[in-house]
Specification:
Largest sheet: none
Strand content: under 5%
Number of strands: 0
Distance between the termini: 163 Å
Structural class: mainly alpha
Shape: elongated
Number of helices: 34
Helix content: 55-70%
Length: 712
């Protein structure tokens, strides 16, 4: 049956010529039309709509498909006659051959260029990410590779006549990334060249701001004038509404003047920053301002600068109490416990900034306190009062201890003790610190009883105070309680594994009781921590020499005089090296090191004697005489040194000089038998009368025999 019979355009089954964009009627409209059939009967039939076969003016039914959807009442069966659910008919295509893959269409030149741009963007991001991870060399290589690809992209656009599609922003990003990577790798000249190209290109947005980067490079190179020039040029190109960046640049300008020791200009920059942007003033800038006042010796400005430093706004630190975070929460609330332990990054950042602020305040206070008033004590008192009144009582207590340390450095032990004793009734942490210092003070004064008493107080207040334990061990060491001292040193190391004093003293006490292997372990550990500490290397060489390991001893002593922070002019080390060479029979090296030791310390009797005897063995008597004379000056009561000088004259053939010297010795020491014997021998050689000396010799020998017989 023809469903289109009686309709206009029936020859064409799909004639949409009369459709004017009206959507098909919804079910709601159909119901409305059915309900209002009386009113709609006067209306003409819908244009292009489907009516009934009889042409009645009633609402038509919805359009339906003239093909089935593929469902059937008979289920599909697979192998074995079982029903299979396969609505898409995929099972029927199992035996058919798969259609060949369609060949991918070749990319157009524009699409190829867009793919290259995506690749360049990816490499720029990889280079920046690699730098953030700390691998600066690899980041620079990636940046160079990006630069090559970007230039290749520009050439391809020129070849394709697509210059209107040049991506200036991409070129800008590539150049900037390359400059940053060169700067990170300390390639300052390359970075400056690229930055110069960027700031001179007016197509790049905000390129003038990168003069700040150029100024930073000049600052690192200590080219202060060029850095100031770049900072000021950058400041001219930054709008006034970007206050944070402008204030940072002004601070950098002040830092440059400070480095040039132009304190007046630096003060102008810092005070201008303080006047217009106090909220941007940080503790480092405030500290630098105080340093400028200190350089000009302006005590009044130092006071005002210190008060400004104390009043700097500490964003995020207002409600943070260091004492509260030390207290563990009561109950079993694990969440509160984890927050108190400071696991979150925000709390760690707050604590870090608080430590930084305290460090600058303490440094400034220690610097200016002795210079503020007529006396250093008055200056410390003013600083302590200011700290207490401005909400820094803990730092004020630390300054009390710093005041005591000031007295210590000037050997004013009485005032230091008076200040430290004020802490005996304060909070445990401060009391422990003060008691530790008091113990050390009394130890220096050889008052070991008081030193041990205050060490016990410090340990009682803080069981994990490693330095207090060291002081206690030192007192035991001085009282010859070596085993107990060793136990206390080990306890201090258990509290603080890197307590250098405890490890060093442990090695000393082990050497004192003859446990050289244990001492060697202690000093080896200490050397692994300090690397080039001269005292440690000396002890290692000394222990190896006592153990008979002369090669290792020679190695340590040689390292001690050849290392950059060693002691190449230490006469004791040079003498020890000389003795080691002498033991192995290398007299040439032994002579060299003995002579070097004598050059730096000409009063060491062992060195002087060795050199004199060495020249005698070499029959170089003229060279031996000065050393024996020096020995006689060091030990004027010893006759043997003058006898050796006279002997050198006699062996040289200067008999007259030798005779004169022997006679002088005989007048001063008439009972010296050796001198009389040398006089007799020399007189015989010179064919002079010697009977008088022979009679004196017989008398002295008889007296010696009688003295020996009486003793027996």
């Amino acid at each position: 049956m023809n469903m289109n019979a009686g309709l206009p355009g029936a020859d064409s089954q799909y004639d949409f010529g009369h459709v004017h964009g009206r959507p098909p009627p919804s079910a709601y409209m159909q119901r409305t039309a059915a309900a209002g059939a009386g009113r709609m009967s006067a209306a003409p039939q819908s244009r292009g709509g489907f009516g009934s076969r009889a042409g009645l003016e009633t609402a038509g039914r919805p359009m339906t498909s003239n093909r089935s959807a593929g469902y059937t009442s008979a289920p599909k069966t697979g192998a074995g006659g079982r029903a299979v659910f396969d609505p898409m008919g995929q099972g029927d295509a199992g035996g058919k051959a798969a259609k060949p893959l369609e060949k991918k269409a070749e990319l157009s030149p524009e699409e190829k260029l867009r793919e290259m741009e995506k690749d360049i963007h990816r490499l720029v991001e990889e280079s920046a990410t690699t730098r953030e991870r700390g691998n600066h060399r690899e980041a620079l290589e990636k940046a160079k590779e990006v630069g090559k690809k970007e230039r290749q992209l520009c050439r391809m656009r020129e070849q394709q006549s697509l210059l209107d599609q040049l991506n200036v922003d991409l070129t800008y990003a590539v150049c900037l990334n390359l400059a940053i990577q060169h700067e990170a790798n300390d390639n300052d000249n390359e970075a400056l060249t690229i930055y110069t190209q960027i700031v001179k290109n007016k197509q790049y947005p905000f390129s003038g701001r990168f003069r700040v980067n150029m100024g930073n490079i000049y600052f690192k190179q200590e080219k202060w004038t060029a850095a100031i020039k770049m900072y000021r040029m950058a400041l001219d190109q930054i709008p006034n509404n970007v206050q944070a960046i402008r204030f940072k640049i002004m601070r950098n300008i002040g830092n440059c003047f400070f480095k040039m020791h132009q304190f007046t200009d630096a003060i102008d920059s810092y005070e201008n920053l303080l006047m217009h942007g106090a909220q941007h003033l940080d503790f480092m800038t405030g500290f630098n301002l105080i340093l400028c006042y200190y350089g000009l010796s302006d005590s009044d400005k130092m006071k005002s600068g210190f008060l400004k430093l104390l009043n700097i706004e500490q964003v995020g630190l207002e409600d943070f109490d260091e004492d509260d975070e030390m207290e563990a929460p009561s109950g079993g609330n694990e969440t509160a416990k984890s927050l108190t332990e400071g696991d979150d990054a925000l709390r760690e950042d707050v604590k870090r900034r608080q430590r930084e602020a305290a460090r600058f305040i303490v440094s400034a206070a220690n610097l200016i306190a002795p210079e503020l008033e007529n006396t250093p004590v008055a200056g410390f008192d003013w600083v302590i009062d200011s700290l207490n009144h401005n909400g820094f009582p803990r730092i004020g207590s630390e300054m009390e201890i710093a005041k005591a340390s000031y007295f210590l450095r000037r050997k004013d032990f009485d005032n230091a003790i008076t200040v430290l004793k004020k802490f005996e009734k304060k909070e445990p942490s401060l009391m422990a610190c003060a008691a530790t210092n008091l113990s050390f003070l009394y130890f220096l004064e050889a008052d070991h009883g008081s030193a041990e008493r205050y060490a016990d107080i410090a340990v009682k207040a803080d069981r994990y105070n490693a330095r207090a334990l060291v002081n206690r061990g030192n007192c035991m060491f001085m009282n010859d309680e070596f085993e107990r001292a060793k136990e206390v040193y080990l306890e201090a190391i258990g509290v603080s594994a890197d307590c250098l004093e405890a490890i060093y003293n442990l090695g000393l006490v082990n050497m004192h009781i003859g446990k050289y292997q244990e001492a060697l372990l202690a000093f080896d550990k200490l050397h692994s921590i300090t690397h080039v500490n001269c005292e440690v290397m000396w002890q290692l060489g000394d222990i190896h020499e006592k153990l008979g390991n002369h090669e290792k001893a020679h190695e340590w002593f040689s390292l001690l005089i050849t290392s950059p922070k060693g002691r190449p002019t230490d006469p004791g080390v040079l003498a020890r090296l000389a003795n080691l060479f002498n033991r192995v029979g290398d007299e040439t090296q032994a002579f060299h090191y003995h002579l070097e030791s004598y050059r730096y310390w000409p009063v060491d009797m062992n060195v002087v004697t060795w050199l004199g005897i060495y020249y005698v063995k070499q029959e170089m008597y003229e060279n031996a005489i000065p050393f024996f004379n020096r020995a006689g000056q060091i030990e004027p009561k010893e006759v043997k040194w003058r006898l050796m000088v006279a002997s050198c004259y006699r062996r040289m053939g200067s008999h007259a000089q030798a005779l004169k010297m022997y006679e002088d010795i005989h007048r001063k020491h008439p009972n010296d038998i050796e001198c009389v014997r040398y006089l007799i021998t020399l007189c015989k050689e010179m064919r002079q009368p010697y009977e008088e000396y022979a009679a004196q010799l017989r008398r002295l020998e008889r007296a010696q025999e009688q003295a020996t017989g009486g003793d027996t």
